[in-house]
Amino acid sequence: MRFMFVIKASKDSEAGVMPPAEMISAMADYHGELAKAGVLLDGSGLQPSSKGWRITWSGGKKTITDGPFAETKELIAGYTIIQVKTREEAMEWANRFPNPQIENGQIEIRQMFDLEDFEPSEGIDRFREMGIAQDRP
User: Fold this and answer.
1) Residue 6 near residue 108 (C-beta atoms within 8 A)
2) What are 4's strand-pairing partners?
3) What's domain 2-112's architecture?
C-alpha cells in the first residue's frame, strides 16, 4: 500500500522563504528513519506556485494559467511517498512526521491507487506494461 503525505503550503513557503535549519534537520532525520525502515519511495519540497502553472479544461478547451495562485490553503509545499503493509502502519509513520511549518503546519495523508484497484482494461494493461502505478517491493 502506497501513501502520500501532502505537506500544505503556507504564506512563507509561497513567498519562497526557506525553512529554518532546525526544521530541515528534523525532516532529514525523519526521512532517514523512513529510508532505514525501507518504506520511503520519494519525497521533496516544491518551489512556490509563482514558479508553476495550471492547466484547466472547461467546455472542451484548455487554458494555461501561470502562478502564483491566491488560495494558499489549496496549495502544497512538498510531499513524501511511503509504501507500507497496512493503513495502521501509515498512520504510525504519519504521526511521527515533524511539523512542516514554523507554527500551524498541516499534512494530508492519502492512499494511492494501484493498478489492481481498477477493472481490467486495455489502458490498465498499457500502464502495467510501462511499469506505472504498480505496487513496488
Assistant:
1) yes
2) 81, 110
3) 2-Layer Sandwich (3.30)
